[in-house]
Write the structure tokens for this entry.
Amino acid sequence: MPASQKVTMIQDAVQLVKGYPQVHLTVDCVIFGFDENKLKVLLIRSDLETYQGKWSLLGDVVHENEELDAAADRVLLERTGMTNVYLKQVQAFSRVDRHPGGRVVTVAYCSLLNIRDHELQITDNELHWHTVKTLKEMAFDHKEILDACYSWLQKRIQEHPLGFNLLPEKFSLRELQNLYEAILNVELDRRNFRKKFFSMDFLVDTGELETDVKHRPGKLYQFNFDKYEKSKRKWIGIDF
Amino acid sequence: MPASQKVTMIQDAVQLVKGYPQVHLTVDCVIFGFDENKLKVLLIRSDLETYQGKWSLLGDVVHENEELDAAADRVLLERTGMTNVYLKQVQAFSRVDRHPGGRVVTVAYCSLLNIRDHELQITDNELHWHTVKTLKEMAFDHKEILDACYSWLQKRIQEHPLGFNLLPEKFSLRELQNLYEAILNVELDRRNFRKKFFSMDFLVDTGELETDVKHRPGKLYQFNFDKYEKSKRKWIGIDF
DNA sequence: CCAACAATGTGTATTATTTACATAAAAATG
DNA sequence: CATTTTTATGTAAATAATACACATTGTTGG
């Protein structure tokens, strides 16, 4: 044993941890949807009097023997009735005064789902979809959390195929482009957009066409996640 | 007030929060350095008997009225004596059994510093630099945390100018390239690497040359962070 | 039924970026 | 002063991004 290691080892880890301070821990889900060519987010009215009338993200405390991902999954299941939803941890928020009831640290999750895939069953607290673009004040630091998750999504959607979670399984290229334009807040050239996606070669032509559309229907495609996973590359190239 | 809002408002937020379960919360810092053309990480021996001989990240509990960023800053200051160090939150880790002493959720931070800028003053618990590449077992889930932060760094360094935090203020292009090659584990063409960085136009020629090098000395450059901040662009382009 | 309309679907020329590759010049070494 | 090592730079070819135009298909309304 080297001379420098003269530290007494701690034998009782449980005793050690008991001496640690504790905090209240929650998860908050930023649940995005896409409808009417607009990015939407699912919110409820806050039930805290301090924030009366303000909109709030869907969240809950993390249970005693529950992982963060599981807590977020649970929130999603309880509120939308859906399992297997796209859900990723984004960031922890820890401002000391972020909750009027005391010290509450929260971990934000970003969730993407197809609005049409589920009906809002329980609409307690006026649970419904809001247009992200026009959303202003919110309860707690939830606007800050929403902004962080939206930025995360904007960046992420350019590099990873997660936008498809916001669309039906079969979608037209126009729908896909509308999605990107709405999220990134840009206008894209239709021809170059198609070229780009076709050249990636992950879109499968289903042979089906759009229905209930009052003009020439477009082809419907599916995203081939398997193929994408297999051909995923690490190196992008230095650029900033 | 709409008919759907029949929820009783909670008036006493403090009382509400008191009913929440609590967890122990820590931060763990993955402190990267660069030396001998290798990416290094600063570790100590775990002082838990369970993990005797295993290496551990530098971490600490989050204090009662302390934000996560502040806690990470404090860990860094206490261990390296340095302030104003590059430090970013990466991810929360919450496996229920990740700590033998009980439920401890941790938030991982990635830190980048120039090894030469500080001397390891306090070398308790054999605090020293380890080569990332050859590191195997670690205490707790710290290997998993390290891997996550390393992946984060690999991706981040391609899109943001954070690598410079690992180098002295004035550096040669060869040093910069060595850094990228070490972190990304690739070989890069020297000519194209230079061309790329010069075309970004953020490198300032200091007019100085390398010293103490036993061959033709290279020019020393500085990174112009101000200019970068001003010209930062949002749109990258869809590609995955 | 047919003309007007609206959106889909495709191609090409231009420009910019990335990649591959070779040689000259400067300093250190013996 | 010749040798060695590393810096420094340029150019051609391939690839990718952009800008842009027209034919096609189905819908709608007269």
User: Anything to note?
Assistant: Chain B touches chain A through 76 residues (CB under 8 Å). DSSP finds six helices and nine strands in chain B.
